[in-house]
Amino acid sequence: MSGHTRGRTAFGAALLATSMLAGVPAAFAADAAAGPTVEEIVVTAQKKEENLQSVPVAVTAFSTKKLEQLHVENFNDYVKFLPSVAAQSAQPGGATVYMRGIASGANANHSGSQPSVGTYLDEQPITTIGGALDLHVYDIARVEALAGPQGTLYGASSQAGTLRIITNPPELGVFKGSYDLKVNSVDHGGTGYVAEGMVNIPVNDKVAIRMVAWDEHDAGYIDNVPGTLTYPVSGVTINNASKVQKDYNTVDTKGARVALRVDLNDSWTVRPTFMTQDTKSHGVFAYDPSVGDLKVSHFLPEDNHDRWYQAAMTVQGKVSDFDLVYTGGYMDRRIDSHSDYTDYSYFYDTLFGSGAYITDASGKVIDPTQRITGRDHFTRVSNEIRLSSPQDQRLRFVVGGFQQRQTHFIEQNYQITGIDPAISVTGWKDTLWLTEQLRIDRDYAAFGELYFDITPKLTFTGGVRAFKTDNSLRGFFGFGSGFSSKTGEAKCFAPNSVGAGPCTNLDKRVKETGETYKANLNYKVADGKMVYVTYSQGFRPGGINRRGSRPPYSSDYVYNYEAGWKTQWADNSLRWNGAVYYEDWKDFQYSFLGPNSFTEIVNAPQARVQGVETDLAWATPVQGLTINGAAAYTDAQLKSDYCDETDPVTGRPVTTCASPKAPSGTRLPITPKVKANVTARYEFPWGDFTAHVQGSAMYQSSSSAVLPLDESAFTGRQRAFGALDLSAGLDHDTWKVELAVLNAFDKRGDVYRYTECRSLYCQRPYIVPNQPRTISLSFGQKF
Fold it and tell me: Residues near 46 by Cβ (< 8 Å), separated by ≥ 6?
């Protein structure tokens, strides 16, 4: 049976199962009596406030209440409850996010492709190539996950979907506050704590301010144990005695948010917001299975200091009967890092004898161990203005314009202590390789969606976004002239133009224009029941290859064909939503490590994804018992061979070859075929208290970490795993206390597998695990 036939069979089975299940709620509704209802959720997925059940888009949303119940504090905490979302993350703040299987296992390099999933904080995009901001989740109104291309309203980098984090705004006329304290203990690790608080202050009847702050210490659980390493060429043996440490990977996060609301009059409101966060992480968040469970033997400093702030402004008002919204923001993010690059040094010495070229000033071969000192500085300016017609009309529309400009200064300094100054990069002591580059990504767009009620029950939506991208990359990268005559200083053509580089050997710019489209029909079958069909497109801008011999890579597109349902049953005690879809991913951007473990990006052949996703919320007939669940089945495959060979004229990968790196039918990496979760919560009176017990179970099947089969064989598959979270607590008037056991059975899962350089060379895989069993005790109070 071919890969395509198997895919159609599996997809057909999923559709059949969905059709069979469709009869269950109807039977339940016929017998159910009026009683408790599920929580109503208001979302802004279509850039206007709507009930979740009225939005003909596949949206999963967690309210403030649900985020607290699920013990969500950061990105990893909410992603595990989003079946359509997968991520690669080697450290806090470094997550690359994927949705619906649109993932090639691409190397997430500083000069790599833009993300395929857009991330928003309120109305402002916060997507960066180094990983989406991992902001602390407290006093958050909602987390919304919009699955599938969102190319018309959200544009670039919302190719596969969009994640939105919506903060709680200031409230007029109400003084309120809260604080929460938590202490936790991690199995195989240390202890941590969280302190967080909020206050909402009404200044007068037209002005209010809301202030939020947090301080968190995450315990480490990876041990850096004693180890030695001997280089074959020099015979030098190194040890890590000075770096041995238990609970190596600690994280400290501090942050604050201040938001102001000013009602200028009955029609116009201004909401400025300022948010900042500072995260310091130490060690690594993966273990080396050859050393032991939750253990590594690393030799050089490893740390990451990620701090950022964002200032934003939203102005909302009326122009006649039309709603006008302007939103703008400025984000500044700086990351300083140190990384141990011993694996690269050792394996290149072992396989290619590279250590013979690492000498001191006297010509003597020395210890070739490399370390990386990195600096990244992002800035992002974004502006959007949109006009919406009255929503009570049969014909409605929203039109708008968008502009953003992101800069990224990149410094990567690969150092070897005591290296000969003659082979160092000019002006940089002990530096074998240097990157000093400035990347600028500019986006401009005009967009609109039109909504027409063909009948009171049938509505058509049509959307278009015309865009222009303008992306440039300039600066220096490579070796000193005394070390190489093929790259680095030897290829410079102009004086230095970025940072403190010795000269300029890269200065390229690429511009593109295009359009994305959307068409949707949704039909209200009955009160609380809607079905819809959607065709939508998503795109990701192209860019510059920093290896000069490579041509620029082009935009890639996702074409989505989707049918979905939004239903409520039994007097709104049961909510069941879902979607089935088929997506074509054309000319997808694939980045890989070429010679010298240097990132190169090409437009690869075609891929297709088909799947089904569903979520359910049930306020059961048992008073106080609620059940929530969600699941996704994702079948993502190549539609043609990936050859890792390029046409000498076009620079694009060839579509046929004798030995493809990944033949047609190969599953795309990262995304598990099955990902699901279920949560049961029981609340009941206990004397003067309201008590609760809760259990949340999660499961995801296995997946590969990279696309090429030979590299996947070295890296190994990311194993299937499941985990169970348990909690119990008491509420009394204004305060609450809770005991939670997360990952109660201490199940080890593979969140991410990687190697420090191309896995064919660095044949030492690292595994980023889910956090070991964590026991926490929390106390909170509202006033």
Answer: 55, 57, 153, 449
In sequence order, the 6+-apart residues with CB closer than 8 A to the CB of 402 are: 155, 382, 383, 384, 443, 444, 445, 446, 447
Q: Which are the contacts of 648, defined by CB distance < 8 A and separation ≥ 6?
A: none
Distances in whole angstroms, Cα of residue 479 to Cα of each of 427, 592, 633, 651: 12, 20, 46, 25
Mean pLDDT score, 516-534: 96
Strand partners, 201: 209
* Number of Cβ within a 10 Å radius of residue 347: 20
> For 586-638, what is each residue's pLDDT tens digit?
988 888 776 666 778 888 889 999 999 999 999 999 999 999 999 999 999 99
What whole-number distance in Å separates Cα of residue 661 and Cα of residue 535?
Answer: 32
Beta bridge pairs of residue 638: 607
Give bridge partners of residue 729 from the DSSP assignment. Answer: 692, 738
What number is the average pLDDT over the span 234-251? 96
Question: At CA 162, angle to CA 128 and CA 593, rounded to 5?
Answer: 45
Rg from Cα positions in the chain: 27
Decide if 696 contacts 725 (C-beta within 8 A).
yes
Non-local (6+) Cβ contacts of 288 within 8 A are 295, 296, 297, 764, 766
Structure tokens at 654: 């060839």
pTM for the full predicted model: 0.91
For 219-354, strand residue ranges (E) read 223-224, 228-230, 237-239, 251-263, 269-282, 295-296, 303-319, 322-340
